[in-house]
């Protein structure tokens, strides 16, 4: 499970989840050993920029969220159960992985189009605001 998914499920900012993970990793390693370090990877955000995220095992993600409130822990536990069912149903196979990648790519394209539309709309609104402000003698900088 990724740190971004934990952030989404717990409704926390991703940067705060990253900080929680960094802060808690030493205690985890003390109990489980240095061979089980939290895996820090990169992902590409909507702007096309690389950002850090952690890919955590079930044990690691449950450890991280164990300090959160019970509802948040339950959301994570439920998601892990869903992931395990998907793996059991063959999503972990090559075909399943390809399907998952296709779904992720489709979602990326949808979000990219939404972002483009939002940026276009913002530009239009800024233009209207500028026109309205100059029409009444106000100047925005």
From TrEMBL:
What InterPro entries does this protein's entry cite?
Phage_regulatory_Rha
The protein's matches in Pfam families, at most eight in alphabetical order, are given as: Phage_pRha
Which branch of life, at top level?
Eukaryota
**This protein's name:** Phage regulatory protein, rha family
